[in-house]
Description:
It is built from 40 helices and 25 strands. With 1241 residues, the chain is of the alpha+beta class.
Amino acid sequence: MLSGAARARGLSGCTRRRWSLGCRSYSAADEAKPNLRPLPQAAAPWTSGEKGLIEVRGRSFAPDSWFNIPPNVLETTSRRLHLKLDHPIDITRRLIESYFPRPGFRHFSDFHPVVTVEENFDALGFPPDHPGRARTDTYYISNDKLLRTHTSAHQAEVFAGIDESADGYLITADVYRRDEIDRSHYPVFHQMEGARSWNRTKVPGGDVTAAIRKDTAKLARHDLAVEDSTPAFHPERNPLQDQHHSPAEAEAVAAHLKLSLENMVAGVFSRAESQAREEPLRMRWVEAYFPFTSPSWELEILYDGNWVEVLGCGVVKHQLHVASGRPSRLGWAFGLGLDRIAMLLFRIPDIRLLWSLDKRFHQQFRGLSERPPQKLEAFETFSKHPPCPKDVSFWLRGDSLPDIDVIEVVRSVARDLVEEVKCIDRFTHPKTGRRSKAYRIVYRSLDRTLTHDEANEIHEQVRRELEKQFGAARLRQVFVPFPYQYHHPEARPGTGTMADDRSESPDSGAEQQPRVRKRQRVRLSCLECRRRKLSCDRGFPCERCIKSRTPDRCSYESRSGEVVHASSSSSSSTNSSGLLLLDGRGRHGTGSEDHHERLRRLELEMSQLKSQMARPYDGSTVGGTRSPSTYEDDAAEIHECIEAVNLAGENGELRFFRGKGFRTRYFGPHNVSMAFVELNGLCPFMRETADEWLRPVILHDRKDRKRRHEERASASAQPDAGLAALLPCRGETDALVSVYLDQFEQIHRIVHIPTFRAAYGKAEWPAAFTVLVLSMLAVASCIHTRDGLGLVKTASDARQRAERWIETCDNWLVRQSQKHRKLIHFQIACLLYLGKRVNTIKKKRFWTGSGALVQDGVAVGLHREPSYMAGKISVYDQEMRRRIWATVQELDMQASFDHGLPTLLSQLHHDTNAPRNVDDDDFDEDTTELPAPKPQSEYTFASFQNLARQSLPLRLELSRLLTGPPSDVDYDQVILHTNGLTHEIDALPSWDVIDTDKAESRGKPLMAYTLLHVQLRQYMMPLHQPYLKLRRQNSKYQYSEVIYYNAARDIVLLHDKLQQEGVRALSFLREDALTTAINLCSVTMLQPRGSTNMIMINSHHTLKLIEKCIGMKEDRLLRCGNSEPWGYSIMCAALGLLEVHLGTKTVEEARSTSAESPDRAKVTTTTTTTASMNGSSISNMARPSMTPFTFQPTLPASVVDAAGTGALGLGDAAQLFELDPSLELLGLNLNELWGEAWELG
């Protein structure tokens, strides 16, 4: 439906870029076109005077005076490259079609290329004076038949034939346009257009907006960066079809369109091998104009450092649906050029290669059509043949001659041997008014070296054909300057002067007076650097051409006009010493006496270089002569001097990465070490200075360094009696370590379990390993169900011991050298942070603590992919670096969400790959290659980290929105992000968590399953919270109420399932019980009393959900003691408020129950402690309920040891909680909530 032709806005639009929608756009001729559809008598080239028939793909047509198709174009009509197996065009077509599968999309690819003028122009609304109708742009068979210029010529046929079973279509076809000649243009190319529509009469309830949004939510989500600052529509630049579409409908269609095409482009271009090695793929949307759509956009990608247009698209204009007999439909359409995309994907440098029959070209793509690999290998150039540029100039008679006519003649003669044709000069004589033109024609063969004799012969044929076609009507005389290179005696090309005779007409009979030519300055830079306007070092080939991987384009122009190709041995003459011999005019020489002077100068330069090289180097960087051959030596010196490794190869992303294993340091691109690279000569100077003055110091330092290294190794292997004394008995240590490994290592991969168990089984532990074990014990202390629960003041003895262990390990870690940190130090740091979260130690520092972990990780380069340093980091350490970094990421993301503060990760570029989905038994410290990852449907202990990485970009974006300015979020974004969260949740595997037998055999995946769901659902509540109170003003916000309620409900149910399985790690790590209880109460109390909506109907279930939350908090209080009573008190008060709102209790009853709750908690805790001292079983105690509801004991029954270390004297039980009646510090004043009668005990 969209094509390059449709893009032009009259003549002014033709000045835009040459690739429109991936296809070539119509271009206005350099001269004005007074008659865009000239009469037959207007002198048009290739007019057929024969009365025979023209056969095109099995069908015969009668040409008339409009016929202007050259033989070389007619021959291509039967090629159909888009259907040729294993051709790059066919491979690209299949890749794109895979993202628009049947039966939802119908695929058409075999339409006949001959169409009528009505189909190609009139039916599509092209105005009569549109430049696309001109014979200078279009190939005509007759005045009513032509070769299609775009696939949109078949849209009416497709719309009429498509049934209701398909909602979209794709059309692929070869299209034909008269166009210029260069490496990216050809008269035949391939287009693909697609469309997707919805029928208003078929969607449920007639709400097409809701149907489109529902379909959008089902689409896959890519993880690439997309820049989209364009509005859904703009009244002037990108108008809405307000007579046919509402703003909501247009926005919904645009959202579906953009996500569909982004997924396709991301999937296709991520397969490019070169793109994987270079900068990450990025996309952006820009506004555009097309006759068939409004609003319209173009999608561009950042490819090779440049923004490249890939396709055009937009919301289909309603009149097109009306014309096709489908007035009830609305939808979107897009168009792209397959040739363009194929050349980008496979790095094909010349479009003529796509039409080549050379086996060396086609064998590189064998077998790719049916089984395309994940990474498409770039095309390897098999020829580096030099170009042969030739010039032709002529006088014009009367009217102008469009460039396209000359181009067609050249292509018809030279076929695919011509690479480029461009007009280099136009001249109008100031006296006579005569006009002249000069063209440069570049000949180059794709499979062999084209000699100058062969090029001259072809060029002569071109000259004769030009005279034949235009001699009688357009030209006065054709000049072919010898030696076939055009020169200007008066000025450079394009200045308005003409070569040779300017004052006399060739047929005036005046005697031609020879003029003295100005001396031509030899241009020393290569042609490629001159074209790119860059400096050139004049090497053979030059350094810039080597770095840009285009040494085959490096060529030099001599004074005679001949081109010296730097990379071709056949295009240069060398003597026995390998020197290129040029004469005084820059032409090739043969080593005769004519070159004596040049050889003498070269010998003099060589002697000067030798004298400079023999002179001692003084460290100066000025005046030195550098040869390209010295670059590698200099680079080696710099590498040795600063001991830096450039890990990003040609990309240069990772500038400096020092060290090995976990003893690494990462330096950013602006580090001071960059000055060492820029300052040439510094390293040799430092080396000479060190050799002369610092040798004794260096020798002493090396001996001392070795001694220090041995002392550190010996000290790290020694045990620490003070640390070992803190360990409990071996049985309790084993139990706590087992709890940690079974629960926490499922979500936060910190240790390699087989390696840890091997070290754990040794008789004697080094100090660092003892600290590691103590950190694990601190994490699992309160979670482990054991005998003898007691209190020390207001904290349980388990928490008291954990706090002591954490303090000791913290002090030990602070004393360790930052320079010599190893894997175990990072493991201890992560475990200490977990221990503080589980035991609620220094809660206000959780966010800063996670930020410190991120900063430590960045300082050693954990945020960069470790495989870049494969030579210095073992495979085992690479995978452990990925796991530690994934752990730090998740800890920082959760701390950011809990505190409502931004995360450091949102401002950090990190490219570390996700940990592989492999079991710990599959690799160890001696592994040289990681095993292949298991499918995500198969659970391992690394599954959580592997899957959590998929949703990390979305969570980072949500974190940025939620912690940024409130004005940055609108409701459409909220809906879009909600759909994104829903899609991520739906993509998570189930692992048969309901099947207990299967779950046991694979390590209980329920915990990882729960956290993957919870960390996504938690974002839905703050996203929709601002819109809850707007529900009464606008019914559309009812969606927010439902999403908000369901998210809170699902989180409670997921946690409750864990509690039933005896897994408490998540409820201790997170505050979901408190937040979901408050959220459920909040959204329910916003509903009017007596309402019959979904939330009020399920209110009795809501009370039970809040019960479950209080039960989880109660369990934590019993295990940790009263370290934080405020959350528990708030939950009880919230429950009372909800009961009053629902009418299940009177105000007095709710006040009394909520006021008694803290006292009941005191009694429960006191009873538990007393039972511990008396040796009674907890399950046998008459424990009062913390709410008016009856709770089942969440703590399993166990026999209490009366001699437990935690059984201390408690004193007054009323002082256990030390409650303050005022909760203003929490932002809640219960006196205001309940009135003057509110009292605490």
